[in-house]
Specification:
heterotrimer; A alpha+beta (313); B mainly alpha (533); C mainly alpha (190); A: alpha+beta; Cytochrome Bc1 Complex, Chain D, domain 2; 2 domains; 7 helices; elongated; C: mainly alpha
């Protein structure tokens, strides 16, 4: 397993290497201060009361209160207000994980027992490593070939399960150059603890060089185009086809009206389902005649096809 | 003639209908499982003392953490207080002769043992490596270990939980002594009542969910396995719908124990009795609405996450109220630091830390980083071990004279309590740091920079083990050589103390008639007022 | 404890037990909703393959058995022997099971060859009606036991008959949900 070149001394503070890490840390340390203060206050009171009111001590014990309405209501509603404040703050930061920047670079990540595979848009592939440019928003599109895995980079404060049968995604911007641990965080069998590696954040220029160097693969979109023809997709979906099939030019990101009345945005998940489970979301005005490609395309080929469709305007 | 001398043969124990004997039968059984689950933990901490995976293989480690979770959750924590102390004490505390359905009570114990046998069989047959959470499709399709055998064990034991819950609910509704209105009940009864509602309503969902996993494994149908058209998140929703309320099954009775011990050893009534009772009911009901907080990064929608996060913050409020009230109960008390009180105060402190760290996990953005790390492990062990186990031990010590008519050795009791408290913190506090720094859970090998914290944790586990063996030893010793106990050695106010230690088989010579509320302690002359005339 | 108090407790216990049964069936109902929302067409198609005449007949039979069970409880309350009504209840229950078994056999071929959404429909059909049948068999056991001990019951004491009645009606009510869920999907459209 590839290991990051992390310095040998114990790191008591975890590196914050993404834009969102900084925000998570502010929330974390604020909550730590708040809960720490509350815990200390309670412990101090318990200790003070225990000492002061120990059996045999001479202090005033007259009229021990059994309820004090204003106090009880106070310590019910004050924490409530504070908790709701924390909830809102955390929810707002959370929403950012799922709101990609418009220029976010999409990278397909596939987990399988027991390794991580990544494929960049230009076709460069990695195993148990992920190279990223600093300052560039990234959107990871995760899938798995077998069981649930979870892509966890502590330094970025990101974690997202890869769930079989669907895409999941998470967005962030790496901000600090360096090498960071990558772990699988959802138990996935025997070598779960060995399923990891490193994420390498590079300066943009260095990254661009790295991306080109050593890549002999065609780009994802090019490969996707090849697959689109070879698997017969263009036979039905091309403009001049005799088969009545939806035109896929510019489909990505479009609102699609389905036969059952719903409207959905054609994202990666929709495209994936259309290929593997075509009878699930049939487009309004079309018959459910598209065959399923379940079992015929692996995750890499799906990623290529979808990349092609995203660029096919 | 006490209930213990009604018969000395094994047969008289195995065919008893007496709720007190059944409580003791449960106590013996869960103690055995506690040490079995603890042995698994000891091996795990031994492995984790060094970063390399060199003590056991990866497969073995995965089986160890699975069996540790399965045993500790279903065969120790869930039955511990309700089936041992609840069975023994609830009828006594409400002035009844026995539970509503004594034969069902005995049946529940046999069902528990049967389920336990299936689980031990799975262990002997080579173990299971799915984790106690059985996530699909790993458990349905990929694991080649004895999944179905363990599922049968847990499924069967679930019925034991359901029957215990049913008995307690009907008993509390129907068998209260004259004058014992709901708001004169001790909080221990409230706590076990609310717990029993959860036992009744949540456990069947687990049973069906695990049955579906077994069916999927056998027949490859496609419920949870996406390769066959199923949905792994469906499993998670169904599983956590039970398993989150389950944690309240594990902690509410512990809160009930604390609420009995603290007023007694502080010699004053509990502060805010009504809010305490309402908080118990609040925790039980809100606990059913928060299961999705185990799934914030699972692929569940962001909006679902937001709703579950808010509800999770709400459920923290009644728990906070209880901590404040226990603290306030110390104010103007006259406090004696007997072993039960040390356990109870330890419970309050450690539950406070565990509960506060729950706020971190309820916070969506923080949970993304912290979930599936050692932070979560530390959080739930603070509540379940620092909380529930300490309360269970406190309750065992507090009611020991009532159960067997003997006193335990007080000095040893205090030493054990302090050893456990110290060992516990040394074991689990470093795990918060490990989690924050990014050590995932269910790892038998880890990045070398985490070694120091892991070493502290493993050292703590050794201390904790000593702490747990101490009560096993001196409580066993006290059965034969302990000082004989009076009917009310603690000068406590509950109805259970108004009868002999140990009680006669039918509990009370005369049915009590209740005139006042609970906790009629008075500090002035170290007196107490009984609830009965 | 008086007989009346004991009877109260037993019936309360039966209600509590039935609550657990609702939650035992719950995950299957939830799974049905989840699967049907995902693949509504497959469910409609599966439903059209069900034998609606047999299913409707069975529903009538089971509802009639609830009537005879209620009459048994009524008879017991009045002190008269409930045996006759219990016997009829058991008979109707047996007929229901027979028809159900025949349906299962007839549908098995279709079910075994189904894929995707239809496979999930058939799984839920067999699982839910199967679980229901298990409960019905247990109910038959209860009714048989009551019938055998019918002489024990009189106007003052007939709690087991009442409790058995509650259980039987519960099993009937579950079927009243299963019938439309599996047999009646979009039967009315052209």
């Amino acid at each position: 397993m590839a290991q990051p070149a992390v310095s040998g001394t114990a790191q008591w503070l975890l590196a914050a290497a993404s834009d969102i890490a900084a925000r998570v840390d502010v929330l974390f340390f604020s909550l730590l201060a708040l809960t720490g203060a509350v815990a200390i206050a309670i412990f101090v009171l318990m200790i003070v009361f225990s000492v002061r009111y120990r059996a045999g001590s001479r202090v005033d014990r007259s009229n021990p209160p059994t309820n004090v309405r204003w106090l009880e209501l106070g310590w019910t509603f004050t924490p409530l207000a504070i908790f709701l404040g924390i909830f809102v703050w955390a929810a707002v930061v959370y929403a950012r994980f799922y709101t990609p920047a418009p220029d976010a670079m999409a990278i397909f990540i596939v987990g399988k027992q027991w390794m991580w595979k990544a494929e960049h848009a230009n076709g460069r592939r990695e195993i148990d490593e992920l190279h990223l440019p600093a300052g560039q928003p990234v959107r990871l599109i995760l899938s798995t070939e077998d069981v649930i895995h979870s892509f966890f980079v502590p330094a970025f404060r990101i974690k997202q399960d890869a769930v079989p049968g669907r895409y999941t995604s998470i967005s962030f911007t790496p901000t600090r150059e360096g090498e960071y641990w990558l772990h699988c965080a959802e138990y996935c069998g025997t070598d779960h603890a060995r399923m990891g590696g490193r994420v390498v954040v590079m300066a943009p220029a260095a990254f661009a060089q790295w991306l080109e160097r050593g890549n002999s693969n065609p780009s994802l979109a090019a490969r996707g185009f090849e697959l689109f023809r070879r698997n017969g997709c263009s036979g039905c979906h091309a403009a001049g086809s005799s088969v009545h099939a939806p035109d896929l030019a510019g489909v990505y990101g479009r609102v699609v009206h389905l036969a059952d009345g719903r409207s959905v945005v054609a994202d990666e998940g929709y495209l994936r389902d259309s290929i593997l489970l075509p009878k699930r979301d049939v487009v309004a005005g079309y018959q459910p005649i598209m065959p399923s490609f379940q079992g015929q395309l692996d995750e890499g080929e799906l990623a290529a096809l979808i990349s092609f469709l995203k660029e096919n305007k | 003639m006490s209930y213990l001398s009604e018969g000395y043969s094994l047969r008289s124990w195995l065919t008893t209908h007496d709720h007190k004997r059944i409580g003791v039968l449960y106590m013996v059984a869960i103690t055995a499982f506690f040490f079995l689950g603890g042995a698994a933990a000891a091996l795990m901490r031994l492995e984790l003392a060094t970063p390399a995976g060199d003590v056991v293989s990866a497969e073995t480690y995965n089986k160890l953490f699975t069996i540790h979770g399965v045993i500790m959750v279903w065969f120790f924590l869930i039955p511990s207080i309700p089936s041992v102390l609840g069975n023994f004490l609830v009828p006594l505390m409400i002035g009844a002769r026995d539970m509503a359905f004594p034969r069902l009570n005995l049946a529940s114990w046999y069902i528990y043992v049967l389920g336990g046998l299936f689980t031990v069989a799975a262990l002997v047959a080579g173990g299971v490596d799915t984790g106690w959470t059985f996530y699909t499709p790993y458990s349905t399709t990929f694991s080649d270990t004895n999944v179905i055998l363990v599922i049968v064990g847990v499924f069967v034991t679930g019925f034991s939980s359901i029957l215990t819950g049913l008995n307690i609910v009907v008993t509390v509704h129907k068998l209260r002594a004259p004058g014992l209105t709901w708001f004169r009940l001790p909080l221990f009864v409230w706590a076990n009542y609310a717990t029993s509602l959860i036992l009744l309503l949540a456990t069947p969902v687990l049973a069906m969910t695990l049955a579906l996993v077994a069916l999927e494994r056998l027949f490859h149908i496609g419920i949870f396995d996406p390769a066959l058209g199923g949905d792994p998140l469906l499993f998670q929703h169904l599983f956590w719908f039970y398993s989150h309320p389950a944690v309240y099954i594990m902690v509410l009775p512990a809160m009930g124990v604390a609420s009995e011990i603290i007023p007694c050893f502080a010699r004053r009534p509990v502060f805010g009795y009504r809010f305490m009772a309402y908080a118990i009911l609040g925790i039980a009901s809100l606990g059913f609405l928060v299961w999705g907080h185990h799934m914030f990064v699972s692929g569940q929608s962001m909006y679902a996450g937001i709703v579950f996060s808010m509800l999770s913050f709400l459920v923290a409020i009644p728990s906070a109220i209880k901590v404040f009230n226990w603290t306030a109960t110390l104010y103007k008390g006259s406090i004696v630091f007997g072993a039960p009180m040390l356990y109870a105060l330890g419970f309050v402190g450690l539950f406070t830390i565990g509960g506060l760290t729950g706020l971190f996990l309820a916070s969506l953005a923080l949970d993304v980083h912290l979930t599936d790390t050692y932070f979560v492990i530390a959080h739930f062990h603070y509540i379940m071990v620092g909380g529930s186990v300490m309360a269970y031990l406190g309750g065992i010590h507090f009611w020991w004279p009532k159960i067997c008519g003997r006193m335990y050795p007080e000095m040893l009791g205090r030493i054990a309590a302090l050893t456990i408290f110290f060992g516990f913190n040394l074991t689990f506090f470093p795990q918060y740091l490990l989690g924050w720094l990014g050590m995932p859970r269910r790892y038998h090998e880890y990045p070398p920079e985490f070694q120091l914290l892991n070493l502290f944790s493993s050292a703590g586990a050794a201390v904790l083990a000593v702490g747990y063996f101490l009560p096993l030893a001196y409580l066993g010793w006290s059965l034969f050589f302990g000082k004989t106990a009076s009917s009310n050695p603690w000068q406590a106010t509950g109805l259970e103390w108004q009868t002999a230690s140990p009680p006669p088989q039918h509990n009370f010579e005369q049915e009590p008639s209740v005139e006042r509320g609970p906790y009629q302690y008075s500090v002035r002359s170290n007196e107490y007022g009984s609830q009965v005339r | 404890m008086s007989t009346a108090a004991r009877s109260d407790n037993a019936l309360f216990g039966m209600w509590a037990f039935l609550a657990t049964e609702v939650l035992f069936f719950g995950p299957l109902f939830f799974g049905y909703v989840h699967a049907r929302l995902a693949q509504p067409d497959a469910f409609v198609s599966g439903s059209h393959h069900m034998h609606i005449v047999l299913g409707t007949l069975n529903t009538a039979i089971l509802m009639t058995s609830s009537l005879t069970m209620a009459l048994a409880v009524g008879a017991a309350r009045k002190g008269g022997p409930p045996g006759r009504w219990l016997g009829l209840t058991a008979l109707f229950g047996l007929v229901f099971l027979g028809i159900k078994a025949a349906e299962w056999v007839m549908e098995f071929g279709e079910a075994a060859g189904a894929a995707g959404g239809e496979a999930r429909f058939y799984f839920l059909y067999y699982a839910m009606t199967g679980l229901h049948a298990v409960h019905l068999v247990i109910g038959l056991g209860v009714v048989a036991w009551l019938w055998r001990h019918a002489k024990r019951f009189d106007a003052a004491y007939h709690t087991p008959v009442e409790a058995g009645g509650l259980y039987w009606h519960f099993v009937d009510v579950v079927w009243l949900f299963l019938y439309p869920m599996f047999y009646l999907l979009e039967r009315y459209s052209a």
